[in-house]
């Protein structure tokens, strides 16, 4: 058996630790939101249209499998299974970071398998925001990708024992957005985005943003577990939640296409994110947990059921489309979220 490189081994560590720290009972800020019931919705279930868009392409359902893994023999199998599920449910899928495959060509198959298992679906490539133009084009070609996620992950790098120590990314993002042949989504990995960050990204020419808020997979906890002294646990709550990030984005939702991810546990969380202005919702940890615990068939069934349940919730709200939700769905915010919005000068 070929010995894994340190980078490839880290990919397996991440999968193991993501499951170890999976928040099976933990609440998050989606619980701080309520939807107002409408007793006379005046709608039929077959009038609900769940289509939306991702990187300007029509998608059948307003959610997708978000970036998770790849870069080792074990994660090759996971990516193949995830792509098989994406094809069966007819939802998009984003790859995990492909940087390891650019350094170690023997690992390309652990990512290329996504397109092989899902030849006709919408697939997103993934690299860090410091990637060069040639690297970005190579990552896109590896998957015949429809778009590229550029991930922002400063807290993860800070906590990672072997992480980066320089974070000059904005000019590079600007150059990649201008030069690449496919749309670019700038994506956080679980720490959310602020109004300032969104303003900076608009200035750099970015049109698509995945807010990637706190509440799901916690990369500070994962990387801190890999540190010999585990001394950075106090950073585990760093960042804005997905709901807080959606509030932060309100000023910019006419200038940016907003996608939401981080802590999506069930269809009601998806609906709440859409009601706050997301065009589509990314799901990672919940899917990976289900896949590892119960297998491919059960995960596929879960997501197919979610699609049916979304239609029910839309009907409860009297909403016929994704674009209806921000206009028609009435939200009640907890005192904590009201305080956050007031302190951040966000109009609700």
TrEMBL record:
FMN binds at residues 67-69, 97, 126, 187, 217, 263-265, 284-285. Pfam families: FMN_dh. It catalyses: isopentenyl diphosphate = dimethylallyl diphosphate. The keyword Metal-binding applies. It is found in: Cytoplasm. Gene3D superfamilies: Aldolase class I. Its main location: cytoplasm. It is an enzyme of class 5 (isomerase). Mg(2+) binds at residue 157. Keywords: Cytoplasm, Flavoprotein, FMN, Isomerase, Isoprene biosynthesis, Magnesium, Metal-binding, NADP. SUPFAM superfamilies: FMN-linked oxidoreductases (SSF51395). NCBIfam families: IPP_isom_2 (TIGR02151). Involved in the biosynthesis of isoprenoids. Catalyzes the 1,3-allylic rearrangement of the homoallylic substrate isopentenyl (IPP) to its allylic isomer, dimethylallyl diphosphate (DMAPP). Homooctamer. Dimer of tetramers. Belongs to the IPP isomerase type 2 family. This is Isopentenyl-diphosphate delta-isomerase. The gene is fni.
